[in-house]
Design goal:
By secondary structure, the chain is α/β, with parallel strands linked by helices. 33% of the residues lie in helices and 18% in strands. Helix 2 runs parallel beside helix 4 (66-86) and helix 7 (206-223) runs parallel beside helix 8 (249-260). The radius of gyration is 23 Å and the shape is elongated.
Length: 332
């Protein structure tokens, strides 16, 4: 912005340019507060969640330190609060980061720990916590880490710093998978590795189904922690429709869950075999129950073998629905 030109003189420019900085100076703090104030004046009133950056924890850890990050966040808080107050708006909300770059055992537990610890030392409490739990799913081929386990760990971390179940948790970015699997093109499933919309058209086969089903499983695991976990923003670099304007399968899987679980209450889970999982929800709008069951067997996900078969005794009026909303008739 022209009005910040003098501030920016001498600073690196470009995306993530701040990561080149080796210290946080008083001049930079003034710049950040002024920028937060200006954004607060101009933003839509609904855009009321502020932070400094996303996936900045490596820079903080290696270059400037956790106290310096708090000094930055304190400047954001001052600027945004002042702007909202001048507009007569309710106070804005704050998260320590737009999201950590992954979150699982061995990766970024310390970032959340230090963000919350240093804020508490300065008498400040964030309004929500946001992470980017890429690779967290259910140990299937599109997510080797257990999203349920890692989410429980995050919530326990938050509790240790006085954040209760009313504190929102956001998966601001996650998943980032694609429905192609063509190793010869370097296309191994991850959206960062291969941009599907730059590729020639080619049949995708079983991977479109696996990707859509995996996204549904991610949402189901997130719904287990609803309403505290109130956002799971599943990324994909793919268009949502094909050349015939037909929606891809992962659109249907999200739509199915939105229709059959509009306000679910998690009541229990089951894992009868190592690679078979189930989550049971009470559908509060209808007063009945839904059990989601799936397998994480890698050979099944690659289309190399049939899915496991469960032998269950169920009431006669149980309905069976696949993740695209189609009614199914089980074998006798």
């Amino acid at each position: 912005r022209p009005e910040f030109a003098e501030f920016f003189k001498g600073y690196p420019k470009g995306r993530h340019a701040y990561r080149q900085l080796k210290e946080v100076t008083p001049e930079l703090i003034k710049l950040i507060e002024a920028a937060a104030y200006q954004v607060g004046l101009e933003t839509d009133p609904d855009n009321d969640i502020f932070t400094f950056a996303g996936e900045e924890e490596g820079w903080v850890r290696d270059s400037v330190g956790w106290e310096a990050h708090w000094a930055i966040m304190e400047a954001v808080v001052r600027g945004a609060k002042r702007a909202f107050a001048e507009r007569g708006l309710p106070p804005p909300r704050f998260v320590p980061s737009q999201g950590t770059s992954l979150y699982f055992e061995g990766r970024n537990y310390d970032a959340i720990e230090n963000y919350l610890r240093v804020a508490r030392q300065h008498g400040f409490k964030y309004d929500a916590v946001s992470i980017h739990p890429y690779m967290n799913l259910d140990t299937g081929i599109l997510g080797p880490h257990d999203a349920d386990k890692e989410t429980r760990h995050l919530i326990d971390q938050m509790k240790s710093f006085g954040y209760d179940e009313k504190t929102p948790v956001y998966f601001a970015e996650c998943f980032n998978q694609i429905s192609w699997f063509i190793p010869e093109w370097g296309c191994n499933g991850g959206g960062d590795d291969f941009r599907r919309n730059k590729a020639p058209t080619q049949a995708r086969g079983v991977r479109e189904c696996t990707m859509a089903g995996s996204q549904a499983r991610l949402y189901l695991l997130a719904l287990k922690h609803w309403p505290q976990l109130c956002l799971a923003h599943a990324w994909s670099p793919e268009p949502y429709i094909d050349m015939d304007m037909a929606p891809l399968s992962y659109v249907l899987s999200a739509n199915t869950l939105g229709n059959i679980l509009p306000d679910p209450e998690y009541v229990g889970g089951s894992q009868p075999y190592g690679d078979v999982r189930g989550l049971c929800f009470r559908r509060k709008d209808r007063g009945d129950y839904l059990m989601a069951v799936w397998t994480t067997n890698h050979e099944v996900e690659f289309g190399e073998r049939k899915s496991p078969v469960l032998d269950m005794r169920l009431p006669d009026d149980v309905r069976f629905i696949d993740f695209e909303g189609n009614e199914r008739t089980p074998s006798a």
